[in-house]
Amino acid sequence: MKFGNRDLLEDYGRITTEEVIAARDARNSIMPQTVLETRPQIQAEMMFHFIYESLGQIPTKKISTRLKEINDDGPTILKYVLNDTFIGTEVSTYTIKERFYDLNLKQF
Predict the structure, then answer these.
(1) Burial class, 79, CB count within 10 angstroms (exposed 0-12 / middle 13-18 / buried 19+)
(2) CA 57 to CA 90: how far, in whole Å?
(3) Which end of the chain is more exposed for a tag (fewer CB within 10 A), N or C?
């Protein structure tokens, strides 16, 4: 998910939660008239379900208290997962990013 010229996976630390929520609210405020206009909302919801279903037990517990705030939005849950369940070492950063890049939608 792009935020200007920044990518949420690559630049997660430079993109604030407020920016992610503002983008979600802007996306959800549009009343789509065509399939093309509906696509961003559908993709965000699919991303949400994909990420939520792939979380382990401990991250799910941490995130479950914020489900109302997240509002079935993929980029928002991703930001919360990265913020709330992140261990800040270089090795863990690489491993977590690698797992996100390797997620296979066909599994779910």
Answers:
(1) buried
(2) 24
(3) C
* Burial class for 51, CB neighbours closer than 10 Å (0-12, 13-18, 19+): buried
Residues in contact with 74: Cβ distance below 8 Å, sequence separation at least 6, in sequence order: 1, 43, 44, 45, 46, 47, 48, 50, 51
Contacts of 105 (CB under 8 A, 6+ apart): 50
Residue 73 phi, psi dihedral angles, 5° rounding: -115, 125
* pLDDT tens digits, one per residue of 32-67: 999 899 999 999 999 999 999 988 887 888 888 889
Q: What's the domain range around 30?
A: 2-107
Q: Domain count of the chain?
A: 1
Q: What is the pTM of this model?
A: 0.74
| Token pair in block for residue 100 | 């996100």
Other Cβ atoms within 10 Å of 96 Cβ, number: 17
